[in-house]
Design goal:
mainly alpha, 2 domains, three-stranded antiparallel β-sheet, 6 helices
Length: about 160
């Protein structure tokens, strides 16, 4: 039985394209999902890993040879980079606002802002896990505004 090298699903003999992701069946590898003959990992796994360390893995997958030409992996790498830039900018602004409010209110609002910051941090962590889940499922989930920029950069 042949399997799609793009998504790993089984391909029926004699079909021209994968029924799940639409990849050409000539790209199917007999033996199951996983690394192709060149030793590269599947695009969905590379897309997931682009989010793991943010900037580092995003840039890494834009440089590495088999992945820098894959639009799916490039999209997730750019989205990971831009998402992490947005998070860093958000936290810088959040810390400035929290510090100013803490000074003005003699620490009372600082405690409240710290508690709200923890909740925001947990929400960002959950969204980061969600992005990795979507990439692993071969879905191109676009974050509003950031996803559009990433799609333009990916080509």
């Amino acid at each position: 039985m042949a399997f799609c090298s793009k998504c790993g699903s089984a391909i029926t003999e004699g079909t021209a394209f994968c029924s799940r992701c639409g990849a050409p069946a000539s790209a199917a590898a007999a033996g199951g999902p996983g690394p192709s003959a060149a030793g590269a990992m599947a695009s969905n796994v590379a897309g997931l890993l682009a989010y793991i360390l943010g900037f580092l893995t995003g840039i890494l997958f834009l440089i590495l040879e088999p992945y820098k030409n894959d639009r799916f992996v490039r999209f997730h790498a750019f989205q990971s980079i831009f998402f992490n830039i947005a998070i860093v900018v958000f936290w810088i602004v959040w810390m400035i606002i929290s510090s100013v409010l803490s000074i003005i209110s003699l620490g009372i609002l600082g405690i409240l802002m710290a508690l709200i910051g923890v909740l925001i941090g947990l929400a960002i962590f959950g969204f980061w896990i969600f992005l990795m889940y979507k990439a692993y499922n071969n879905e191109r989930f676009m974050i509003p505004f950031i996803g559009e920029i990433a799609a333009k950069q990916a080509g």
